[in-house]
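FOLDING PROBLEM:
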Amino acid sequence: MATADLVDEYGDRLRVCDTQFRQFGGRRRFSGRVRTVSCYEDNGLVRELLRTPGDGCVLVVDGGGSVHTALTGDLIAASAVENGWAGLVINGAVRDSAALAELPLGIKALGTNPRKSSKAGRGAVDVAVGFGGVTFVPGDYLYADDDGVVLLPAE
């Protein structure tokens, strides 16, 4: 379902993220249950989590809005595809953007940077994260398309 139609149907029950993301993945529309990673210029937890079964979930990564380093690239995103993740929403940067566009995966991020991030694994998994005026809670349902990112609370 289109995000605009969801807003019309659910009104104030739907949370709408104000962040103006760019599209990077080969899938422009995607949806799924929310899983989260909170990290800053360190993609160790992102890489680790995307190597596990995704079960159609969307990984929301709060990178603190930093575009100084990329939190995912083609290899990590390919791992997400192999493991059944529906998409990624990254409050940060990606790299390998031409390769990402070829993957059957939804990817939204702030921008690009060819610089690698650290891999120490600092951060937290499946915690509530907030950006764009909304809080992303693990288990909520996320819909994304060219118009934006919206969330329905878990029932």
Summary: The chain has four helices and twelve strands.
